[in-house]
Amino acid sequence: MSALLFAHGAGVSSSHPWMETWARRLERYGPVIRFDYPYMQAGKKFPDRMPVLLEAHRSALAAARASHGDEVVLIGKSLGSRVGCILAAEVTVPAVICLGYPLVSQNKTAPRRDAPLRALRCPTLFVQGDRDPLCPLDALVSLLPELLAPTRLHVVPDGDHSFRSRKRPLKAAGITQDHLDAAAVDAIGRFLAEHLGW
């Protein structure tokens, strides 16, 4: 059975309400498997170094494949999407879904985190808020044509790093946050149907 391996962001665990809510939404497309990186399991504040994160993600993928077969899609929030992209360049996966990919760091002098994206070859979907400070939309849009992987982009209007819009734009558009979230989930479904036939 096909499944989604769902990795958390830097500041929240796999059991955080945001992760739980999105896992429930994604279950319409198959089993959603969540896991915690070692630093989160240990109750530490700061993420492990990338080799440790990558090995934990690799182990979680192996466990997911043991239960659900090889067709396990990597989906991650922020940090989890970045680690997932690095892993997807090393092992064969059917697709990657990035929820708020952290293209830039809070450290303004750090280089752009586009190397993992340039190494991808599998279909990749970006779900991105258009006012996310960790991924300026214009920078991502200009980068996508340079990537070798087949890519899709779903923009959450007025969305922040967690896709939350402000009350005034929602009221002006005559919609609710639920509408925005549902549209993002539908975009994920279309992506999975297009590339994997789910």
Commentary on this structure:
The protein has 198 residues and is α/β, with parallel strands linked by helices. The chain has one domain: Rossmann fold (3-Layer(aba) Sandwich). Helix content is 41%, strand content 16%. The protein has 8 helices and 6 strands. Helix 6 links the parallel strand 5 and strand 6. The longest helix has 20 residues, at 177-196. The model has no long low-confidence stretch (mean pLDDT 95).
Strand content: 15-25%
CATH superfamily: Alpha/Beta hydrolase fold, catalytic domain
Number-wise, the strands total 6
As a percent range, the share of helical residues equals: 40-55%
Mean of pLDDT: 95
Can you tell me the residue ranges where pLDDT is under 50 for at least 5 consecutive residues?
Answer: none
Biggest sheet details = 6 strands, parallel
Q: Which CATH class? A: Alpha Beta
Distance between the termini: 11 Å
Strand sequence of the main sheet, in spatial order? 2-1-3-4-5-6
With helices defined by DSSP (H or I, 4 residues minimum), what is the helix count?
8
Helix-strand makeup class: alpha/beta
Specify the CATH architecture.
3-Layer(aba) Sandwich
Number of domains: 1
Net shape: globular
Can you write the helix and strand succession as a string?
EHEHHEHEHEHEHH
Radius of gyration: 16 Å
CATH topology: Rossmann fold
Key attributes of the depicted protein:
single chain; alpha/beta; Rossmann fold; 6-stranded parallel β-sheet; 41% helix
